[in-house]
Amino acid sequence: MSFSLSPVTTATTTTSSSSPSLDALGWDSGWEAEFAPYAAQGLLPGRVVRVDRGQCDVATADGTVRADTAFVTPHDPLRVVCTGDWAAVDPEGASDPRYVRAYLPRRTAFVRSTSSKRSEGQILAANVDHAVIAVSLAVELDLGRIERFLALAWESGAQPTVVLSKADLVPDPVGLSYLVEDVETVAPGVPVLPVSSTTGEGLDVLMATIAGGTTALLGVSGAGKSTLANVLVGEDVMAVQAARDVDGKGRHTTTTRNLFVLPGGGVLIDTPGLRGVGLWDAEAGVGQVFSEIEELAGECRFHDCAHESEPGCAVTAAIEDGTLPVRRLESYRKLVRENRRIVAKTDARVRSEMLKEWKRMGAGGRASQEFKRSGRLQ
Ligand SMILES: Nc1nc2c(ncn2[C@@H]2O[C@H](COP(=O)(O)OP(=O)(O)OP(=O)(O)O)[C@@H](O)[C@H]2O)c(=O)[nH]1
Ligand SMILES: [Mg+2]
Ligand SMILES: [Zn+2]
To answer: Nearest residue CA, atom 3 of ligand 1?
Structure first.
């Protein structure tokens, strides 16, 4: 393979002559229109290519600049600047670092909950069109985990693809086709593609799938995301570490989210491996992952059927005739329950924050009383 364009380099404060154009970074007329008010203030557009402790690297038409996010880092973790955001950079005081004054509303965003105990969401990447979920064939498939990643991906608004990485480790084509089938059953409507960064298998199809638009690589640590990023970018842009063990856990090699321009067009974001994928308000995403169950549910006699012992239940009928695996229904129920819990928690948090705000503003009148009673502002 030969590649002409160099990737966006990170951690540089100087302008670079080989910097990609805004178009190559994904800029379009829609972004331009949204940016107009900032352009009128003399601010520069740029795409966040890396975020690192309150500072970020922003690729602008003049090269990559280091910028401080102090002005746009509110206490809400979902509103912090993240890789993939389009930022308005203050060109004033061309010193190092500059400041991000605002970022444009996101078209898509990956959000996961960081812990099951606290209701805190974490934003993983913004403005992504294709979510490539890397699943290593070096370890046993964990279908439940794939379903979680898919729910996160669908919910973000991006189109998911599952990549079965390290396919060179499964030399038997029949065995490989069974593995692909297994994953296809948990991923309706999602392409499942075996690939190998070592032999190049499947990479042409993957490149065609992600050409144009922004792609994010997601998956657990050691799945081979950065290795894939290096092959797709055509340069060793990410550090890769030899797996210390074969259980797929290993160490976390990648610790920041990094954005690169792909030589064939499009943009790639490599992300650190996720240990757990907690869902964050992902009802629609879960529905899409289990679309065949939701379709069956539409055929149940009762429209509020719990698919337990009701007569005329299409879901239990599908379990009985073997077309729907029990594991799949259990997994669906688990994710629906988990999602309800997190939404309830978030709502409670939002409610209590709004109440605090009311108190702070001294609004102790009728509206505040009403809010306390109903949990809603009138
Ligand atoms: N056999 C084989 N090994 C691979 C392939 N791709 C990656 N590996 C190996 O898998 C290990 C982990 O690869 P990485 O690319 O660092 O994994 P990662 O998903 O980026 O890991 P984190 O950054 O920790 O999330 C390394 O030892 C790679 O050499 C492949 O196609 N075939
Ligand atoms: Mg990595
Ligand atoms: Zn039913």
So the answer is: 166
Residue 252 alpha carbon, nearest atom of ligand 1? 24
Q: Are residues 84 and 204 located together in one domain of the fold?
A: no
The two beta strands, 267-270 and 258-261, are antiparallel
Domain-located, residue 33: yes
Q: What is the pLDDT of residues 221-244, one digit of tens each?
A: 999 999 999 999 998 888 887 754
> Residue 109 falls within a domain, yes or no?
no
pLDDT digits (tens, 9 = 90+) for 92-109: 765 667 888 889 999 999
Give, for 358, the enclosing helix (H) or strand (E): helix 326-360
Q: Do 307 and 265 belong to one domain?
A: no
- The reported pLDDT for the residue numbered 374 is 44
256 ligand 1 Cβ < 6 A:
no
Q: How many other C-beta atoms lie within 10 A of the C-beta of residue 53?
A: 7
Do both 183 and 226 map to the same domain? yes
Contact 179, 163 (CB under 8 A): no
The mean per-residue pLDDT over the stretch 114-142 comes to 86
What's the domain range around 54?
A: 29-103
